Each structure stands twice: as structure tokens, then as C-alpha cells.
Amino acid sequence: MVEFTVTQKRRLRELNAPTELLIRVFEEVSERDAYFDKFVSELVSDNKTLVQQSINSRSRSSLKVIEKKVAEAVVPKGFTEVNTPILMPRSYIKRMGIDESNKLWKQIIWLEDDKCLRPMLAPNLYYIMRKIRRFLRPVRIFEIGPCFRKEEEGTIHSTEFTMANIVELAPERDPSVILQEMISTVMKSVGLKDYEIRESACVVYGRTHDILVNDIEVASAVVGPIPMDLNWDITEPWAGVGFGLERLAMLTKGLNRIKPVGRSVTYLDGIFLNI
Length: 275
Ligand code: ATP
Ligand code: MG
Known about the structure:
Strand content: 15-25%
CATH architecture of the largest domain: 2-Layer Sandwich
CATH class of the largest domain: Alpha Beta
Helix content: 25-40%
CATH superfamily of the largest domain: Bira Bifunctional Protein, Domain 2
Bound molecules: adenosine-5'-triphosphate, magnesium ion
Number of domains: 2
Number of helices: 9
Structural class: alpha+beta
Strand order of the largest sheet: 1-5-6-10-9-8-7
């Protein structure tokens, strides 16, 4: 019995062949190679049609559509958008309690001694919340934008990804209820109504509530106060959640990897261009 070679599997994966196909076995090498050639030529032809359709429809990319849907769902709920710098000072990372001993520290991309590409949005949101809460409560803000982490790029991780972070400080109601509402607002807005919330340990926040779709983490959420808040001069209760938008895009498109929907010169909104 013979399987597809590693190279053949890679090519099939790039062309979005169904997962069942990748594990197919054959009696002989010649039978496998003939099947591979025939299948690849069909997939290439399908991909060309998809590229044509995509260009002709002049549509926005799934990732940008998801960004828009999330923003348009949370604004009517009273959240204001902020746009903060992508370059982040080292001191903000330290104030998140992340130091050389954390896994996340090793994932940070440093540009100069005291600056990195932000691995998360939370530090900037903490900074802004502290300023606003002095004269206005509750503080409801959100940001959507690129984050960077050195990752072993698997199916659901990439070095560049897009986070949507939504937070409410000093809510008038129970922050756990606020959190559930935030999560359901976002998940409904992108059409993913079947999700599960599971608690897990986190080096930065202590405990997080992870939001999972088909066992894939799409977001992590936290209810404060937590000890780290004091580094930011925050003492009030809060609820916050950070979504990975490529993972949401992947799931809404029925794909099994985020690469095709992320920032890319190889894929056009999920469609492979090296054909
Ligand atoms: P994971 O455990 O999957 O590596 P995480 O718990 O380290 O993720 P968080 O810090 O909770 O990630 O970030 C919030 C969300 O951002 C995650 O739930 C995920 O959807 C997304 N995310 C985090 N890292 C990446 C990445 N490298 N590529 C794509 N999405 C990511
Ligand atoms: Mg997480």
C-alpha cells in the first residue's frame, strides 16, 4: 500500500483538496501518481475558475468583511473604536507581567532594544482605559488590528494575525454577564452561533475563558479585576475578549487552515494563486 508523498500532500493541501483525500492509499506507485496528476489538474482548473469568479465579483476579502461585521456589531452596543500604534514599547510588555521567563516573551518580534511589534492589543487598551475612566464610566472601547508572534506556523497560527479586542471597564452590571453578551454579539455577527466556552490557565491573565468552535480556540476572554491591573493603575471590575479574526474567517469559509485567509501574496481570499 502506498500513500501520497510529502510533496504531493503539500500540493493537494495548497489547492484545498478535501482532507479525506490526503489519507488515501493506493495499491501501486503508478496508480497513485496517475490519480494525483488527474486530481491536481481538476483542482487547478477549479481554482482558476474561482480566481476568475472572485475577480469578477469585485468583492472585499473575507478577513476585511469579518473586521467590518465585528466593528458594526459592537459600535451599536456602545463601544468606541480606538486605533493604537503597532510598535509597542518594551515597558508595556513588562507591565503585562511578561518577562524572559514567559513563553510569550520568546514569541515577541523585537525591532530595537525598546520596541517590538505588538503581540497583543491589551496593553494599549489598558493605557487608554486608565485615561478615560478618570472622568467617564463605564469605559467601552475596542480595537481591531494586526498583532505579531513568532510561531511554529501550523494550521491555526501565523506570525502576523488580526486581533479584535473588546473591553468594558467599570460596567454597570455583572462583568461576567457583560462578557457573555460581548461574545455572543461578535459570534452572531459573523454567523458562528455554535460555540463552547471553556476555562483554561494562562500565564498572562491567570485564568481565561476560551471560546471554541469545533475545538478550535477563536478567542480568549477575561473577567477582572486581576492582580496585573495594578501595573496599569486599574482597580475597577472589567470584562474583555480578544478574537483571532483569521480563525473566524477560516471557520466561516469552511477551511481547515488560516493561511489562505490571512495576509498573503499566495492566496486571494482563500484561493491559491500558484496554479
Ligand atoms: P493559542 O493557544 O491558540 O496559541 P493564545 O491563547 O496564545 O492562542 P491569545 O493570547 O488568547 O492566544 O490571543 C487571542 C486570540 O488571538 C486567540 O484566541 C486566537 O484566536 C488568536 N491568535 C493568537 N495567536 C495567533 C496566531 N499566531 N495566529 C492566529 N491567531 C492567533
Ligand atoms: Mg488564548
